[in-house]
Amino acid sequence: MPRRPVEIAVVSDVHLGTYGSHAAELHDYLRRIQPKTLILNGDIIDIWQFSKSYWPNAHTKVLKQVLGLAAKNTQVYYLTGNHDEKLRKLERLSLGNLHIRNTLSLKLAGRCVWFFHGDVFDAVIKHSKWLARVGAVSYDGLIVLNAAINHLRGTFGYGKVSLSKRIKNNVKSAVSFINQFEIAAATLALTKGYDTIVCGHIHQPADHLVDVPDLGQIRYLNSGDWVENLTALEYDAGVWRLYRHLEQRPEDADATADTDDQEADSIELVDLTEKELFDNLLAELTA
Asked: How far apart are CA 223 and CA 207, in angstroms?
């Protein structure tokens, strides 16, 4: 299957290791593109909720696909988020074409672009991490409940619903938080001289201009997530676009998996301890 070339692809908030992660769909997306640069913008592996009791094969396939892209000369930047913050101690580490960073700056078509996850602007995480962890577990539980409800609705011929999306879109405090997040990110980026910012963290895909009084205007992009929205950002020929997998997935998405898939299928992780599992993943990165 020929891969679609793209200059830059940005993916964030995959939350591998949780029930809500749509790893199979992300794997399907990654095996169809050949980016020159792949930016994983935080919360890729959910270390907060990491457990040996739940690590499906599809989650391994995503990691194998990322490593496969790096082996084919794609520059892969893993930017740390709050759910994978333990990797921040490895900041500046590079293993071949795989690089771990906290933020990334690029100059694209004469514009200064700043990539970062965005959790530094979340006051709840910054000042009450224990509360944020409770919220993360609750969110994952809501996703599981949502899946059960959608299965039941499908049995009776009804369409799917997203409980968390409805909460985000209808609770004023959630809408206010998103707006405040965008303003905070835009303000800092403008003071540092950037023209464009690319974030993740809030699971809200976006591409619009943000006005900051006395500072000016900046383009704000958010890659969304692979829990609900299944979105990514792509940059090619000087143009940014927001990719939505459910809307643009090819009809042959369920075609027979390639060699990388078959190799991933042979890896059994369920009987490993958490330390052994992390050691196994590290071995994959350094092989």
From this structure: 9
